[in-house]
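can u pls check wat happens w/ zinc ion
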Amino acid sequence: MKNFCWMLIFAVCVSASAQEPSRAVRQPVIVIRAGTLIDGKSNTPRHDQVIVVRGNQVESVSDAASVKIPAGATVIDLSKATVLPGLIDCHTHIFLQGEDPAQGGYDANILNAPLALRAARATVAARRALEQGFTTLRDVETEGAGYGDVGIKEAIDEGYIPGPRLFVSTRAISTTGGYPLEGYAPELDMPKGAQIVDGPVEARKAAREQLDHGADWIKVYMTHRSWVGKDGELVSQPTLTVEELRAVVDETHGWGKKVACHVYGGIGLKRALDGGCDSIEHGLDLDDAAIAQMVKQGTWYVPTISAYYHDWAPSDTPAGQRDRLRVAVHGPSFQKAMKAGVKIAFGTDMGGIPWTEPIAQEFPRMVELGMSSMDAIRSATSRAASLLAMDGRIGVLAPGAFADVIAVDGDPVSDIKVLENVRFVMKDGKVYRSNGQNVGMEE
Ligand SMILES: [Zn+2]
């Protein structure tokens, strides 16, 4: 009887493996003719290339002259366009919509909007990202919408709604006095936009809860309020202690995941680096010691430059002076980090910026501060993929990568602004935009 069972299992295995080749053949094949190809990794664009996509993956990339088009393949002609890997934004908030202060701002989003309304808005934000060629987002907290990002990610993965592949961080972590809602009567127990912890035990427990409920990354706020100091310097209020942060980082690393830290500068920045943050978000005011420590520890820098050019308070107010000082110190921080070889990944803080605005506005900001166009493109392709531990799978057009492909008219190397006008979008081998029009977004 025992022998019979083994034989049965063996027979099943043989027939299953015998089916493999025929199943592979049935996968749809799409051939993309690329006039110019920027592969996301190489410094040099190539011309007249052919990308063969089988199923949801890139099978080959080769010279048009040498390639044999597979029989029955669908051919997409982008021979007049520049073709790139799908772009990656490493800092977004699909559950924020650039809340207008005149309409109640951040607080109204939490106090008045039903969660279903917020989820519906997030669904539109996800589609907006995809139609602009951003096929992957690291979405760094829901701002009071709990685990809503895990739900949106599932809806995208199950094909209910169109959207980028999402890396989500759920609720985020800060301390008492370290996150809105604030400014209400102290007798009121107001909801907060992040999970509030005090002490290493609570910090570790929050990380465990968030990881348990589907966080791909943990987001920590290491600074909160900022203002202009008496010597004209930018001061940032620190939040978690090194011990609290270490508990979060230790727990998260144990799960094989990473920690993204919102931080501007000063004490909070020192704690963020001593505590082992994997990525520094915003990093407005990086001193030389911090930059050296980031290089040594291999810490990523996601600068989100564009966000700080929005919503300045009037110049004759303390908040307005603070807003202008943030921008004044951010540029030099970015330039010093770039020169020192800090690993920089593209991030925008979309959601803080309304989703009706172009995500690609961050590219010219980086280039104006001295980054080459190609490095700016790599920061949103292969480098962002490294940040996400997805090397070779996204952010590159090469065999074995997911078939996330976009195209623009013109040459983004000489004019980075053309990335604001994405004509073609494919994600996972499925076309979502063609000739500048959305397609296949109806399901
Ligand atoms: Zn943010």
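Residues 91, 93, 140, 349, 352 surround zinc ion (CB under 6 Å).
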